[in-house]
Amino acid sequence: RAKSAGGNRFELADPEADARAITRHGLTTALPAALERGEFFIEYQPLVHLGDGSVRGAEALVRWLHPQHGILGPDRFIPLAEDTGLIVPLGRWVLEQSVRQARDWRERYGDGGPLRINVNLSPCQLTHPGLVQDTVDILERAGVAPQALCLEVTESALIGADDDLLKPLRRLAEMGVDIALDDFGTGYSNLANLRRLPVSVLKLDRSFTQSMQQFPADPVDLKIVEGIVSLAHSLDLAVTVEGVETGAQAEQLRILGCDTAQGWYYARPGPPERLHQLALVDSTG
Ligand code: C2E
Ligand code: MG
Ligand code: MG
Ligand code: MG
Fold first, then answer.
1. What's the pLDDT tens digit per position in 217-236?
2. Is 182 left (phi over 0), alpha (psi -120 to 50) or beta?
3. Ligand at shortest distance from the CA of 241
4. How big, in percent rounded to 5, are the helix, strand and coil portions of the chain?
5. Using CA atoms, how far apart are residues 184 and 228, in angstroms rounded to an integer?
6. Distance 127 CA to ligand 3 centre (A)
7. Ligand nearest to the CA of 150
8. How buried is residue 104: exposed, middle or buried, by Cβ count under 10 Å (0-12/13-18/19+)?
9. How far apart are CA 19 and CA 164, in angstroms?
């Protein structure tokens, strides 16, 4: 009886779920050829110094120009690439392109150009044995100093990380590569744990920036951000904030002591030429 009662429910098709599953499957199987055919491209979003408004660098954000579906954001395909392992060659491609872009900026604009490049790393890349050597090779081939590179790792990827996982990050940090803890504040990590991690930058999650939207901002949120910033600074970590959409947020976060900001208020992610323009305006005016 139970079976027949439940039977109907299971037979009810959800066409939208089916379409999603098909797309998911379709996208997953299309990933390797997409990488070979050069369907991925990178947009860059400037990182701006909150004190003087200068462009200090840019974050590389990958996109997929899919022949049927148009431009897909990373949230649509990075998880699929992680499931299939394609994230390793894809991530290496992103790193190589971004580091070369940083070299081009520097060649064209010298110290007036964006100085640093931030690249996101998946947890799977962290556990891949080639990470350190690939990074060294890519920097050397492009003639870019490790100090110009910042690798972003999410807080959740490092929660409970053992020494084996931290070893490659530590080696990169010793070479001079900055490691940033991305989406900080969403992962419930133990703040005291920060001392153990080879990170030099905290990227405060967009949810904190959003709570600075109202004026005056929620006093509890203000206290939390203030506390995080002072803890970070006392550990010699720089604080970057993501998702800054208004001047009021930027001002509030500057007053709270954040160092660098990123968000639509300054610029949406865009082609590398846009960075040229922003940096140029910045260095001349
Ligand atoms: P993320 O590293 O935290 O990157 C910030 C995200 O916030 C980006 O979304 C960016 O476009 C978006 N954003 C920037 N400013 C604003 C703003 O003012 N308001 C709002 N609402 N959003 C803003 P995007 O490009 O869709 O990337 C999403 C995530 O995908 C990234 O989050 C990162 O975790 C991942 N991702 C992107 N590129 C790569 C990559 O090359 N490799 C890996 N492993 N992950 C990547
Ligand atoms: Mg990031
Ligand atoms: Mg982030
Ligand atoms: Mg985020």
1. 888 889 999 999 999 999 99
2. beta
3. 3
4. 55, 20, 25
5. 10
6. 20
7. 2
8. middle
9. 40
Mutate which of 59, 84, 117, 120 for ligand 1 pocket (most atoms within 8 A of beta carbon): 120
Residue nearest (by alpha carbon) to ligand 1 atom 43 = 120
What residue ranges in 142-231 does DSSP mark as E strands? 149-154, 178-184, 201-204
ipTM, two decimals: 0.98
Distance 203 CA to ligand 2 centre (A): 8
Best of 149, 182, 242 for a ligand 1 pocket test (most atoms within 8 Å of beta carbon):
242
Neighbours of 99 (CB within 10 A): 23
The pLDDT of residue 255: 94
154 CA → ligand 2 middle, Å: 8
Distance of CA 60 from the midpoint of ligand 1 (Å) = 9
Tell me the pTM: 0.92
Q: Please name the residue whose Cα sits nearest to atom 2 of ligand 1.
A: 120
d(CA 161, CA 51): 34
Q: Which two tokens stand for residue 90?
A: 């894809």
pLDDT tens, 136-147? 999 999 999 999
**Burial letters 242-271, b for 16+ CB under 10 A, else e:** bbbbeeebbebbbebebbbbbbebbbebbe
